[in-house]
Design a protein that fits this description.
This protein starts with a helix and ends with a strand. With about 900 residues, the protein is α/β, with parallel strands linked by helices. Strand 25, helix 24 and strand 26 form a beta-alpha-beta unit. It is built from 25 helices and 32 strands.
Length: about 900
């Protein structure tokens, strides 16, 4: 582990030195010495000599010295020639000292290197071996396999959920970690007879850090989705929360799943018993979790049989070992015997075997036989899977452990943090962006079942992920052993004094006395991350505490991340301006009213995330153009621009100095100057909004054509209020539709006289939205249905203004989401058999003239959900009748 961490530190330092010191004399020798150390770490030599920590601290010392030099070098003033002399002398002496220290470590390595020759062979890896050689060729990591649970689903559904007594009953699914409790609960929750039987279904995850209040808040916000009472929910006592849930569910037949719960007694009175067959499903590691409930059934998870275990194992081998001979099967069967029928262990071990040859299987089996006593514990297999990870993936995996339990981790944020921490290196892959390398690191972890991916329908980096409790526990243990990161949990009084360069601070909305004075290593901390631990709602829950307002002691920090913190009462610490080494600064989901001009001296920033809470209107000082090294910029959806004279009108945000920018999110042409795009040469992903302006749209179109934007990414453009009554304006939109081959997502609001022919429209569109198009002479389905990659389509506000719409056979081959809203004239919709073969979600809203859904929709086996909003009662009844015959979730609502 130590080797992996230090290797990541050295790799990041090498990248930084090459980027910052390309024009300086003397740096070449230092890079050469560091590269030699990095290679040694790859083979685990330095850590076996006990020099890992020394090298890590030396690497940080070098980084501090180099970045201090660069910062002063770039400051510039009339005395620069004199300052350059002194600084040059200082740097030269530092380099000499660093090289001597490196040589001392290398001498120690040479003395014992002959004893470690075998380590070189066992540890050697190449980028291609672990999925970096073939970009984009990774198999679908989202495949989800279930083995051995069909009988349990049918039995529990028939006897205990749909069947059983009229009284409120509790079904407790119990078993050890990794036995599949959550999987079984999810199968029951989505089981077609269960969906049909219950009027209201609620899923709530509690987790290891379960707190009764938090789960009650989540359920109450779920049963009242239209409430705008977020503050009132926060202010309620627990008894009031339970009363609110009780009233909301009273009289309804409901099923509530409480996943991974530790305390049922404190909240059970929130669920009414109306003798109508309502049910509560609990998953827990505690077998007696529901013993005090008057009517309950406990279902114990059983281990998989050897045959079932082998079936599950084979699902992990697909793609690499499709045809196993008798010898491979026999070795595989012997391996899974040691997994004792625990699904998680089978999946993890199977994922490791998938990437290795038969000889490695034999070594694994031999190791299991030699360590039979240790192999009887789940921890043995989890630890083994960690040890099997390539060196470059180990710090990336351990980093997952610093997030709060059951936290939904935005995958793109994880990439940015990995990059800022220096875990992602371009060595051997100079032509690939760090963002793409990080994505392939993540895919490699997911292929090994070390992380669980959520939001399957989203583009990869738009998804979220989670880590299993057992794997997170491993991360915490390893992180403490190697001082990789430390969690400070103020909500639990967990204030242990331990030295670490990375701190994850768990805030608590009920805890106001939070002080960072108790952190003795503040001056050496390089990463500071703040999280709201108890916030199941999609809003900031924790106010920034007054006692923690000063961050000036963390002057060496490179990463500062605030996740959903509320700065309205206690304002953002002004001392952030002193954290001049920051590379990553994020306020995602925060309530933040101002980004001040005093932050303009953060010259090393590479990531700036200002995507604050959607209800917050932030004022941004017009200083972002100063961040010359910025690569990833996430602007808020709405904001004000402040210039030096404190004027807010007729001013646009300047971005013309950001020549290294690769990701630009939420560029609004009304708030940012479209002329600045001319200076952004390296943009690879762009999302923007244009509001009715010809010139701005033409400029954006020009740059979208020339930027190296990946068509597989999530670049998007929203065109608002752009009525095309003139041929000139229509020509601009036509160019967007036909000539922007790298633009996958497009939304157009405004009148269109026609659509280009389907042979002319770019085949790379994956998501399209048309609003107020008023297409009469053309049926858009006949054109858009031919687009080979289109996954999501929305037609709204009379985008189609005719009577009849037709989806022909074989049209929309990849479409998964279709929404038709406020198409006032639509009366008849025809769908041929074979159209939309992958459709999963269909939404119909306020199409008052539509008489009925086509019967052919019920033939689409992938269709899982119908959402019907503000449609006539007669239409709703017909839909219910149709859906009753197939496993389909139907939701009726008012808009």
């Amino acid at each position: 582990m130590e080797s992996a961490v230090v290797s990541a530190v050295l790799g990041g330092l090498l990248d930084r030195l090459k980027h910052l010191m390309a024009d300086e004399e003397g740096y070449t020798q230092l890079i050469s010495e560091l590269a030699a150390l990095a290679t040694a770490h790859k083979y685990d030599l330095v850590s076996k000599l006990g020099a890992g920590k020394d090298v890590r601290e030396l690497a940080y010392e070098i980084e501090d010295s180099i970045e201090s030099y660069v910062m002063v070098r770039e400051a510039g003033n009339t005395c620069w020639s004199l300052r350059k002399f002194f600084l040059g002398w200082s740097l030269k002496n530092d380099l000499s000292v660093f090289q001597k220290k490196i040589k001392e470590v290398k001498k120690r390595m040479i003395i014992t290197s002959n004893k470690l020759d075998s380590s070189l062979e066992e540890s050697s890896t190449t980028p291609a071996e672990f999925g970096l050689g073939g970009m984009g060729k990774t198999r679908n990591i989202n495949d989800h396999y279930v083995v051995g649970l069909d009988g349990d689903v049918e039995m529990l559904s028939s006897n205990n959920l749909v069947g059983g007594k009229d009284k409120l009953s509790v079904v407790a699914i119990v078993g050890l970690g990794g036995m599949g409790k959550t999987t079984l609960a999810r199968l029951l929750f989505d089981h077609h007879p269960v969906q049909k039987h219950f009027e209201r279904r609620i899923w709530a995850h509690a987790g290891v850090e379960f707190q009764g209040r938090g789960i009650l808040e989540y359920i109450l916000s779920d049963v009242y989705p239209d409430w705008s009472l977020e503050k009132k929910i926060e202010e309620m006592e627990s008894v009031e929360l339970m009363e609110g849930i009780y009233q909301a569910l009273h009289g309804k037949r409901y099923v509530v799943v409480l996943d991974d719960i530790y305390d049922w007694e404190t909240i059970r009175f929130a669920f009414p018993d109306d003798h109508n067959g309502s049910r509560v499903i609990i998953t827990s590691r505690f077998t007696d979790i529901a013993r005090r409930s008057p009517n309950y059934y406990t279902h114990h998870m059983r281990p998989l049989t050897l045959e079932e275990s082998w079936e599950l194992m084979k699902t992990r081998l697909v793609g690499h070992h499709n045809h196993l001979d008798m010898e491979a099967k026999e070795i595989g069967l012997q391996i899974i015997r040691h997994c004792r029928g625990v699904p998680l262990l089978i999946v993890v071990v199977g994922s490791q075997c998938r990437l290795r040859q038969l000889e490695d299987w034999k070594k694994l089996l031999q190791h299991l036989v030699e360590h039979q006593y240790e192999a009887k514990s789940d921890e043995y297999f989890i630890d083994f899977s960690y040890k099997m990870l390539p060196v470059h993936l180990k710090p990336c995996f351990l980093y997952l452990g610093h997030f709060p339990t059951d936290h939904h981790i935005l995958i793109e944020k994880l990439y940015l943090l990995w990059i800022a921490e220096g875990f992602v290196s371009k060595k051997d892959l100079p032509d690939i962006s760090k963002f793409d390398i990080a994505e392939n690191y993540f895919k490699a972890l997911a292929e090994r079942s070390m992380v669980m991916v959520q939001d399957q329908e989203q583009v990869f980096f738009d998804k979220s992920c989670q880590i299993h409790d057992l794997l997170r526990e491993l991360c915490l243990v390893k992180a403490m052993e190697e001082e990789f990161f430390r969690v400070v949990d103020f909500g639990r009084g967990n204030h242990k004094r331990a030295v670490s360069h990375r701190l994850a601070i768990y805030l608590n909305m009920q805890e106001s006395a939070v002080s960072l004075d108790m952190i003795p290593e503040a001056k050496s901390v390089r990463s500071l991350l703040f999280y709201e631990k108890n916030g199941p709602l999609t809003k900031p829950n924790s106010q920034w505490p007054a006692e923690a307002a000063d961050l000036k002691e963390f002057r060496r920090a490179r990463v500062l991340d605030f996740d959903g913190v509320d700065f309205r009462v206690k304002q953002l610490p002004k001392s952030i301006k002193r954290l001049v080494y920051l590379r990553h600064l994020s306020f995602r989901g925060c309530y933040l009213l101002e980004f001040p001009s005093s932050f303009s001296n953060l010259s090393f920033l590479e990531t700036l995330d200002l995507l604050v809470h959607e209800s917050c209107r932030i004022t941004i000082a017009n200083v972002l153009w100063n961040f010359k090294r910025l690569r990833y910029l996430y602007l808020p959806v709405v904001f004000l621009v402040q210039n030096k004279a404190q004027e807010y009108h007729d001013h646009k945000l300047k971005l013309n100095g950001l020549t290294e920018l690769e990701i630009l999110e939420n560029f609004h042409a009304g708030l940012c100057d479209a002329n600045d795009l001319e200076m952004l040469y390296n943009v690879q992903r762009f999302t923007g909004v244009v509001d009715g302006n010809n010139d701005d749209l033409e400029k954006i179109f020009k740059h979208l054509k020339h930027w190296k934007i990946a068509s597989s990414g999530q670049s998007s453009l929203v065109v608002k209020n752009f009525d095309c009554y003139s041929e000139k304006r229509f020509l601009i939109v036509e160019n967007l539709l036909t000539r922007c081959k790298a633009l996958p997502v497009l939304e157009i609001e405004g009148h269109l006289p026609r659509l280009p022919g389907y042979t002319d429209i770019s085949p790379n569109f994956t998501e399209m939205v048309f609003s107020r198009s008023e297409l009469i002479e053309q049926d858009p389905m006949q054109i858009l249905g031919k687009l080979p990659k289109l996954r999501s389509l929305v037609l709204s506000n009379n985008a189609f203004a005719a009577y009849k719409m037709v989806c022909s056979k074989s049209d929309f081959p990849e479409l998964k989401i279709l929404k038709l809203a406020m198409l006032q004239r639509l009366n008849r919709w025809e769908v041929d058999s074979g159209a939309m073969p992958k459709l999963a979600i269909l939404v119909i809203e306020q199409c008052k003239g539509l008489e009925m859904l086509p019967d052919e929709l019920m033939e689409i086996t992938t269709l899982k959900e119908l959402k019907i909003g503000s449609m006539p009662r007669k239409f709703q009844d017909k839909v219910r009748s149709m859906a009753a015959q197939v496993p389909l979730r139907v939701t009726m609502y008012s808009t």
